[in-house]
Design the sequence.
């Protein structure tokens, strides 16, 4: 009986320790933002994100598009009809981007 009590005590101590560690090491919340490509437009045109956030471009149009940073910070290359492409923002800044097939399509990714 004494052995069992010791074991229960150890298990409780380990559980308490691990709960305490989890509470202290909460990682920053990472969000996912979606930009829909439809009607030869990026919707929304401007998206605000934080470093570590992921942006997903979803092509709901009837022809291929791309999300291509004017400054060369990111480039999806071709996003086929019905396909999507993900990018994780790392550095802060305003990044203008366009579609290589439709230069009138303009978007801005703000990482703050
Ligand atoms: Cu396009």
Sequence:
């Amino acid at each position: 009986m004494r052995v069992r009590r010791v074991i229960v005590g150890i298990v409780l101590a380990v559980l308490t320790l691990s709960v305490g560690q989890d509470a202290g090491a909460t990682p920053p919340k990472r969000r996912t933002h979606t930009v829909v490509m439809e009607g030869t437009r990026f919707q929304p045109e401007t998206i605000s994100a934080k470093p570590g956030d992921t942006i997903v471009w979803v092509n709901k149009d009837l022809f291929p598009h791309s999300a291509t940073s004017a400054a060369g910070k990111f480039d999806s290359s071709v996003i086929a009809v019905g396909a999507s492409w993900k990018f994780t923002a790392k550095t802060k800044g305003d990044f203008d981007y366009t579609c290589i097939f439709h230069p009138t399509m303009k978007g801005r990714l703000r990482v703050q």
